Amino acid sequence: MNTNTYILTIQCADQNSIIAAVSGCISENGGNILNLAQHTAVDINMFFCRIKFEATDKFNLESFKKGFSKLEEKYNLTWHVFDMAVKKRVAILVSKTSHCLYELMLKYADGELDCEIPVIISNHPDLAHVATSFHIPFYQVDPAKGKAEYEADLEAILQQYKIDFVVLARYMQVMSGDFCKRWHNRCINIHHGFLPAFRGAKPYHQAWNKGVKIIGATGHFATEDLDQGPIIYQDVIRVNDTRSIDEFIRMGKDVERHVLYEAVRRYLAHSIFFYEGRTFVIE
Amino acid sequence: MNTNTYILTIQCADQNSIIAAVSGCISENGGNILNLAQHTAVDINMFFCRIKFEATDKFNLESFKKGFSKLEEKYNLTWHVFDMAVKKRVAILVSKTSHCLYELMLKYADGELDCEIPVIISNHPDLAHVATSFHIPFYQVDPAKGKAEYEADLEAILQQYKIDFVVLARYMQVMSGDFCKRWHNRCINIHHGFLPAFRGAKPYHQAWNKGVKIIGATGHFATEDLDQGPIIYQDVIRVNDTRSIDEFIRMGKDVERHVLYEAVRRYLAHSIFFYEGRTFVIE
Amino acid sequence: MNTNTYILTIQCADQNSIIAAVSGCISENGGNILNLAQHTAVDINMFFCRIKFEATDKFNLESFKKGFSKLEEKYNLTWHVFDMAVKKRVAILVSKTSHCLYELMLKYADGELDCEIPVIISNHPDLAHVATSFHIPFYQVDPAKGKAEYEADLEAILQQYKIDFVVLARYMQVMSGDFCKRWHNRCINIHHGFLPAFRGAKPYHQAWNKGVKIIGATGHFATEDLDQGPIIYQDVIRVNDTRSIDEFIRMGKDVERHVLYEAVRRYLAHSIFFYEGRTFVIE
Amino acid sequence: MNTNTYILTIQCADQNSIIAAVSGCISENGGNILNLAQHTAVDINMFFCRIKFEATDKFNLESFKKGFSKLEEKYNLTWHVFDMAVKKRVAILVSKTSHCLYELMLKYADGELDCEIPVIISNHPDLAHVATSFHIPFYQVDPAKGKAEYEADLEAILQQYKIDFVVLARYMQVMSGDFCKRWHNRCINIHHGFLPAFRGAKPYHQAWNKGVKIIGATGHFATEDLDQGPIIYQDVIRVNDTRSIDEFIRMGKDVERHVLYEAVRRYLAHSIFFYEGRTFVIE
Asked: What predicted TM-score, i.e. pTM, was given to this entire model?
């Protein structure tokens, strides 16, 4: 007996009757829809759909895929189906500040991150004790070796642990274009500014000097263009003008860790669609 | 040629394959789904679904209803279908404060309330000029006549204007049980407290005396039990402890008018489902 | 008997004992402090203070000013004292969209804007009826005349009405550098983007294309550098990815009108301090 | 040389010239005001003031107190002065859920809780490992012994560690009236509901059944009347109607831990004033 749950994601130009066709195909193949979220973006005439369904006894994944490929042809749609029993393997990269790492660890321990986290990697030794207290192997890599060699070390660890997805949890190294390409749309970074404003270094200093009244953080995919990758999640906090830069930094930590967690959660739930450099998060 | 848009709402015990069956039925009858929002409430095992579809040339409403009644039988579902071309007729009842009335008027003038507002009724003369400046007939009713007679006057105006739906926009009269029954789930009130706390009179005074740090407002259906009807929308605002009761009242106005508008908008969009004394708003 | 209330604002390099000296001076001259808000910005070592005091029988404004000028010398401070009985005269400039104008009108009518609004000016005839319904003179100016001549017309109206302060309430004309200089720190604009991101035209389109998850509006002083003047107030609203550009525009209106009102209110309360291109709002 | 920082709190009926008198007294005794926050609550005619000052070489605490007692007499004011170099000793009481404990531990480790935390106490063994990983002694007490004996054990530990202040971090035992009296205004509890609504057990279930659209948490002082003590801090989160009770519980955790931290921080900063069963938090 098959009791698996699957996520099906679909993306195509908007057309008539797609939902009926797709839900019919799932039903005919022995799937039972638990949740369907759909959006037609009228500004670009695109259709996005995320369906969670459970497999009944009659369900067979290969038959389903074969059946579905006919819809692919008919509607010219891009689609993926994910078996929720297969957990993504996630590596967390950190430097010296612990708040983002702790947030991910605590959510993971609480069963709120649906993945495996087999390894934590850092360019500094400072957070080894955190990894150890959660019984996760900790590796230190050395950027002083030179970017190519150091990224090769990093890549070797990612390969060794069969990593699917990388989280930069306030990792203070700019990744090479090659790295970003290899991990295209599979590497999330947290930026401590409300992008697209305040890119690059010291965003809290930039924000304070500009006198903005609300600060934020942005979870986005890492791309070769620094801090310009597709945005997944953002949150903000009001700062009145009696706050110093140090207080911006302190208050911002709570926003950063929350945003990173929410971005990772959306990735693991297969809720993220891509179109022309931006995301559509359909939940 | 038929270019109408329809909203279909469905509510039933959760069962397999409902979405496939429903979307199939729409498609077979010449409807094209524009938007489908669905929710299975696991705590009560109920399924709620709101579908917006456009009618193609082949669509015939009576045939659709006939076809759909088979699904009604099979799945034991409660359903309604609304022709979006038929606008609800809404009466607004006010007393002396203008902020909620103005909000509805401005949104109406801006095309953001999908209804007709043929009449404004008050128990005071104060806001006649507002109605007039928006060219809407204004009636004054007199509660001093005694509740029965005064509500009869009110009802006569509602009948005269073929009103479908009543909005109490800070209307300072408690409606009778009979009135609430007649307008069951068709009369929205705005309460200036974050219900279920601070029911009844002077909610801002109650909130201040309790020292709460956040105040709010609640849009809900009027029922015989004062301020206990199903909640549609709520919003809040942080109040620091340097605020006086008068400032609570002033700040609260912005929350009230926003909440009332959002509640009315959800009603007009047919997004509200009812189950055991509460609402499920599915958008 | 003198029952006036005054606002005193002070700005200087941070030094010991300023609060004691200032509050002593007020007390000795027959003033009674009702409210004192003070902030030392450690990042720039600056002291800002806003004091509201009432005048007792013994108070004499000229004596107070004479006494206070000694503190000015000793602490090298910049200060202003405002008699709250003297209302600022405010002109509102509008174009075609009514939401910001209506917000200011309604707050004004409700006694929540502590000023006089003797005139409304527009480059279009569309909103004349709004001005009229609030019994405020409406003037139309014509940019087609050429910038110099048109701004001269505008300036003549502002002079005629003895205007102290100008509010650009979605006024769709870029003001000249000369105008901005003449009205330096006395002209507030509302930008429909969360500055410093999305400067210039069509900020909602920019935001949608970038895929940001939160949009906002910014109330700021108009300067020659478009959308770069000192920020007074900002607010934001979460937008999920099912929102179209049109919905951004619709939802943004509520943020814009609220932000503009809050910015104007802070200006009228003398709560805004300036330092190196940014504001410090001390309440 | 004396470089200490002090917090002075003052509370009295509102009167003329208090700020001048108080700031003068500090200055004359060799104190330099770093920050002054003051509020006159017009609804009850009470004056609250919190002053942070640094001691210059000339400052002598005993002389200051003597000098200040004259103001106490003249203005009939209640006051306290706290040497910020003397850290409060805080005990954390926990049961089985870790999120609130972890939040306090992480903020403590990050230097953002200005206190000593010498002991963690629980009625269950589950969280011993968390205490140990932060190198803080962990004690288990046994309610099965009977309330009197078990609270005596608890009290003995609190005495042994010279505890000033107790934090109930989702501690699942109702404290006796005697305990609440002994720790009057020195024991903070976190309630997982937006008080005063949803007192007592299972507040998330209550909230879901009522269909509220926003849930919250409340940090308050423990009193004999369950969940009715003075409120210190509250925060809320919007929940749409597609959320289950389990999701309320999961989402609520983030609100609870944040609110508890903010409440404790305000207590340690001496920002909390009491008047007629509510707090005034003056920052």
From this structure: 0.96
